[in-house]
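Dear colleagues,

I hope this message finds you well. In preparation for our joint manuscript, I am sending the 3'(2'),5'-bisphosphate nucleotidase CysQ (Ruegeria atlantica) sequence together with its predicted structure, so that both groups work from identical material. I would be grateful if you could confirm receipt.
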Amino acid sequence: MPATDLPLLIEAALEAGKIATRYSGTQAQRWDKPDGAGPVTEADLAVNTMLEERLCSARPGYGWLSEESEDSTDRLDRNSTFIIDPIDGTRSFAEGARTWAHSIAVADNGVVTAAVIYLPMRDLLYTAAQGQGATLNGKTITTSDTAELLQSEILAAKPNLDARHWRDAQAPDFEGAYRPSLAYRMALVAQGRFDGMLTLRPSWEWDIAAGDLIIREAGGVCSDRTGQRLIFNNLHPRLNGVIAASASIHQQLSALLDPAGPGIGT
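The corresponding structure tokens are as follows:
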């Protein structure tokens, strides 16, 4: 349950930060995953091993879904599942940057109920439990109150602004920005530092599960690119993009996106 899971996730995230920061990102051993799936480092694997041992020992009845573990359909038979990205932003970590994060969540029957995003190099600990609000370093956070999309600042990589994604064949003229960690982008929206974020390509559940709850508990809205609610612990753990923002900005973004635009598998 959220009330008991969140302290466990916080303890695990803090320990993950201790492990990851023992490595020098630029000197850590690094491999490229097959099929262009991106890099992985020895730090990712060390954090993943600790998290799996600690979390699954504490909740033996929960399923397990992690970027750095071989997937098993056993998780589909569990009401609750851990959804983990040991290091979100591995490229940044390997480059010696500070914007990578640990993303740790629990989903109950497809809905995230407890979540932590932790950036140890920036001393930023974002947390949320269902019905209990969202916090940053223990202080309550809320999404921004910007009312108009054209006055907003949206975290989005340049490919998301391609004309093919938008109803009028042109992206709206909001101010754009970018951060390499998807989990961190979502946390910044929850914090109100940015008005929204979007990624229109297929998105792995482990990148966005924790951010989904933190944004919702901060008063925002999180959906896929078509405006549908995000459901987690799917057989194929990829979702059809993400739109996350305050309620007003989310509505405006959704109205301007072309629902027939490129989606899963394109």
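For the figure legend, we might mention the following. The mean pLDDT is 92. Helices lie at 2-20, 42-58, 90-95, 182-191, 205-217, 247-256.

With kind regards,
E.M.
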